[in-house]
Amino acid sequence: MKNLNAPRLGAACLVACLALLPSCFVSRETTNVPLDPEVVSQLRPGETTAREVAELLGAPSEVVQLGFRSAWRYDHVRAKRAGFTLIVVTLLDTDARQDRVWVFFDEDDLLLNVGSTFDAGDAEYQMPWMDRNYPEDDAPETYDGSREPDADDAPMEDAAS
């Protein structure tokens, strides 16, 4: 007599073995349209109007009313995730960087000031156990709000002594 449960048992063993194997994964998430530094450099305080800013950059992510003045915020965020799964444990690392532009207008909708950072392109895939290498100026702050000291922060010797 032939055993009819043997194929089912073999398939169940195969599925169990595959479920226990480790796996790696990556994903990428993008929020809003990328901001172009060359377009932002065309904005001229005292000359560019709010209408011209909207034509160049599109609709802002946020508009803040400051009395009779206003500020517009533009954002682009890129997040990259890498992870590793083993049985029921998953290790995950996310590096989210953003481009941000703030433009400030007077009561006549004339551009007063522009502030920008462009870091979204620096997002990296890394496994959770790897060290992330930030440029010195981008070093994360410590939990008490102070920056990690570096060689440039060493106390200066008094020249008179």
Describe this protein's structure.
The chain has a domain at 28-129: Beta-lactamase Inhibitory Protein, Chain:B, domain 1 (2-Layer Sandwich), CATH 3.30.1450. The protein has 3 helices and 5 strands, in the order αβααββββ. It has helices spanning 6-20, 37-40, 50-57; strands at residues 23-31, 62-66, 69-86, 89-105, 111-118. Strands 1, 2, 3, 4 and 5 form a 5-stranded antiparallel beta sheet that branches. It is elongated. It starts with 5 loop residues before the first helix and ends in a 43-residue tail after the last strand. Residues 142-147 and 149-161 have low confidence and may be disordered.
Profile the largest sheet. 5 strands, antiparallel
Summarize the amount of helix as a percent range.
10-25%
What's the number of helices? 3
Please give the number of β-strands. Answer: 5
Task: Compose a concise summary of this entry.
The chain has three helices and five strands, in the order αβααββββ.
What's the arrangement of secondary structure elements?
Elements: H1 6-20, E1 23-31, H2 37-40, H3 50-57, E2 62-66, E3 69-86, E4 89-105, E5 111-118
Antiparallel strand pairs: 1-3, 2-3, 3-4, 4-5
Q: What are the main properties of this structure?
A:
5 strands, disordered C terminus, elongated, 161 residues, Beta-lactamase Inhibitory Protein, Chain:B, domain 1, 17% helix, alpha+beta, five-stranded antiparallel beta sheet, 3 helices
